[in-house]
Design a protein that fits this description.
The protein has a single domain, classed as Alpha-Beta Plaits (2-Layer Sandwich). The chain is 37% helix and 29% strand. It is built from 5 helices and 6 strands; from the N terminus they run E-H-E-E-H-H-E-H-E-H-E.
């Protein structure tokens, strides 16, 4: 049964955006070519918010990718780069990733906050806005 992982990250300052963008694209390419990868999507949304959605053959494949470079080392930098961060995981029947509104609803109901060193009020209250259908800024890698 495919394993889905989604993340939502809000970059807290414009000064972190260039390096964040480079690392996000590198990590997306890494995820697309990783063993067990079924689908990879990115979304650059409003207010410097970035979403990732990935589908995997199983959770262990995702965890192996998550810890490997370049993704693993850059995750530690997100503690300072981001003021909002959340993650959600689940198993589903289909290897296809759901639409963005379904993913954001899933983050609202089943997600959890990730640690950040400079949390915003929205992070503390766990306020996640609903994504629209076909949001601008979506990329598909696989």
């Amino acid at each position: 049964m495919p394993f889905v992982a989604i993340t939502r990250l809000r970059v807290r300052s414009w000064r972190y955006l260039p390096l964040f963008a480079v690392q996000a694209l590198r990590s997306a390419r890494q995820a697309a070519s990783a063993d067990g990868s079924l689908a990879v999507r990115l979304l650059k949304y409003e207010r410097n918010t970035f979403w990732t959605a990935t589908a995997w053959t199983h959770e262990q494949a995702m965890r192996k990718f998550m810890l490997a470079a370049p993704h693993g080392p850059v995750m530690r930098k997100l503690l300072d780069w981001c003021d909002e961060a959340s993650v959600a995981h689940w198993n589903q029947e289909s290897p296809e990733l759901p639409a963005w509104p379904v993913l954001s609803a899933r983050m609202q109901t089943d997600g959890r906050r990730s640690k950040v060193n400079h949390p915003s009020a929205d992070h503390t209250a766990y306020r996640i806005p609903q994504l629209p259908n076909n949001p601008r800024g979506a990329l598909r890698f696989k």
